[in-house]
């Protein structure tokens, strides 16, 4: 298959696995085939012991302008139910390794929801965020009504979802939807740099830390704290904990092995 035809492009850079969405003609609209390819590549990286962090990117023009409207236009409730398109999203949700999103341009609908499946979000100053499903007679279906209010709070999430208006990169940063905003020329390089910085840490501690943060959205505080404590204690069974703490005491850089 040529680059033109591949729905995603994958490459590795040291311990970082990079995936780019590749449907430029439709602003990376997410059809079921693309989502299946994306989930499969994410799982491949998740299982690869040489990959510690995943970078997910679109193009400079579009991260993704949403689920593919052409693909959904003539579906019925039964066909939507039977094809169960969100099962692939569940697979992405289960990825244990940190995912750094490199977002530029349109980040809308399912695109915004995909971004919210990632862990650290590096946004270009040109990025625009929104859930405009309301304009086409539907509503968010891949987590927008649940994850957006957790990030933005109820009033702003309602505004975005009910009016269909877009947020600028700066607004997204001010309200905690993204991690950092950078000049448009650097959004991808900066995301890869951040991914390498994260990949220099202990891989097991990284995965546990991600699991701990995600648990905060699922449990009451006391249960989350108990869960965190158990993960923290478990890290004392790893060689990386010994190496990290000894290196600090010996005033040298640690070398983590993921063991
Ligand atoms: N699905 C399918 N095709 C799409 C698309 C989408 N979500 N978004 C853009 N495209 C296509 C356009 O149809 C157009 O194709 P043609 O060249 O063949 O006409 C091409 O991409 C370029 O788009 P525009 O000409 O519209 O570009 P623009 O710069 O004028 O506008 C835009 C950009 C504001 C993003 C506009 O394309 C737009 O509003 N897109 C739809 C956004 C949207 O409603 N997303 C939500 C989808 S539903 C969803 O995501 C459900 C869910 O929760 C899972």
Question: Would you give an account of this structure?
Answer:
With 259 residues, the protein is an alpha/beta fold. Helix content is 45%, strand content 16%. It contains twelve helices and ten strands. It has a six-stranded mixed beta sheet with strand order 1-2-3-5-7-10, with helices on both faces. Strands 4-6-8-9 form a four-stranded mixed beta sheet. α1 links the parallel β2 and β3. α1 runs parallel beside α4, α6 crosses α7 and α10 runs antiparallel to α11. The longest helix has 16 residues. The protein is globular, with a radius of gyration of 19 Å. The protein starts with 7 loop residues before the first strand and ends in a 10-residue tail after the last helix. The structure holds acetoacetyl-coenzyme A. Acetoacetyl-coenzyme A binds next to α2, β6 and α5.
